[in-house]
Amino acid sequence: MPGSLEPLDLGVHIPYHFRCPISLELMRDPVTVCTGQTYDRASIEAWVSTGNSTCPVTRATLTDFTLIPNHTLRRLIQEWCVANRAFGVERIPTPKQPADPALVRSLLNQASSGSAPAHLRLSSIRRLRQLARDSDKNRSLIASHNVRQILLPIVFNNGSDELKNESLALLVMFPLGESECASLASDSVKIGYLSRMLTHNSFDVRVNSAALIEIVVAGTHSPELRAEVSSVDEIYDGVVDLLRSPISHPRALKIGIKALFALCLVKNTRQKAVDAGTPAVLVDRLADFEKCDAERALATVELLCRIPAGCEAFAGHALTVPMLVKIILKISDRATEYAAGALLSLCSESERCQREAVAAGVLTQLLLLVQSDCTERAKRKAQMLLKLLRDSWPQDSIGNNSDDFACSQNESKQKCFIREL
């Protein structure tokens, strides 16, 4: 293998010894194994995790799987990145080192100790939270030490508010098991506590409380338990208030829409979401969501349009119909399906919505949709909406009707398709 420099598309050359022997990419976190060879941490960890026990370069058996950070090489790579900044090379950040298992065990023992001073328990929780934020690997390590069983009693038992709030912030970083979700959902005292925390003075506490509520509702398989949680009025007010947060708080928007969608999956309590002002907030914030969250928001809109009060509230917002028409075929197949479903519900109940949809250009959007590679459910909704709107279409969009629905050569394919519906 050559020891010279290899060219890149931009004219910059990466030194051969800066490349990982496995991925052949620039190393971001070089580590040395027991054979003396250096690899990028992510690449060698993936190699070992698939069952390989040999060094990829030397083929010698790895008798020790300890990965030693190669700080000297990492600094040289960073200096090279800085020197080649003019070619568009970005400096790699200094990687966070994986948490030491012994340290994690010690911190968890200290956090769970009722005899330990309060400030030491608080310090342990904060250190664990920082480690969990650093990497997925750290979160997996912490989760493997039964962190949920340690944190749940701290969050809901008597203790300092600061310790409980920090524990809640750490707890929501880990998924709960079904039994844990069911246990929380069936405890009205704990659910009441979380609902009260949605009005806490601390913005982070409100977000974390909503996050735990979403985890519980989404992780509970029992319809009865889900309905019990979803029946708490204060939850909707708190969650909807998060959706009013400025765009500078993206986590609040993400958590808010996840929680709201999970709550609105319970049919009998959707009225509570409407009463809390959900329709207006969703329409106003729809453009601020990222792709996955926009899909959830549109799914929530469609769910709420299935009840009369929700349909009326969305129809009363001047931007609802134009926004839904604009979204078709713009975000994703799922978003298109939900937008078409919501429009179908609105136009089925309101002739004014039909006129608004036609004025917004829904005809062209729907014709493109039924001829696209979108989902069959989306196409069925589009076809139903086209039939529903047929009487509202401008006459020049339809052409002259004929008994046999035949199309002359001069007529467009769109007019033919419309008449055949």
UniProtKB/TrEMBL annotation:
One of the protein's GO biological processes: protein ubiquitination
Pathway this chain belongs to: Protein modification; protein ubiquitination
CDD domains: RING-Ubox_PUB (cd16664)
Keywords: Transferase, Ubl conjugation pathway
Catalysed conversion reaction: S-ubiquitinyl-[E2 ubiquitin-conjugating enzyme]-L-cysteine + [acceptor protein]-L-lysine = [E2 ubiquitin-conjugating enzyme]-L-cysteine + N(6)-ubiquitinyl-[acceptor protein]-L-lysine
Pfam family for this entry, one: U-box
InterPro entries per the UniProt record, alphabetical: ARM-like, ARM-type_fold, ARM_PUB, PUB22/23/24-like, RING-Ubox_PUB, Ubox_domain, Znf_RING/FYVE/PHD
Molecular function (Gene Ontology), one example: ubiquitin protein ligase activity
Enzyme Commission no: 2.3.2.27
U-box domain residues: 13-87
Primary role: Functions as an E3 ubiquitin ligase.
PANTHER family hit by this protein: U-BOX DOMAIN-CONTAINING PROTEIN 26 (PTHR22849:SF112), WDSAM1 PROTEIN (PTHR22849)
Protein's UniProt name: U-box domain-containing protein
Biological source species: Glycine soja
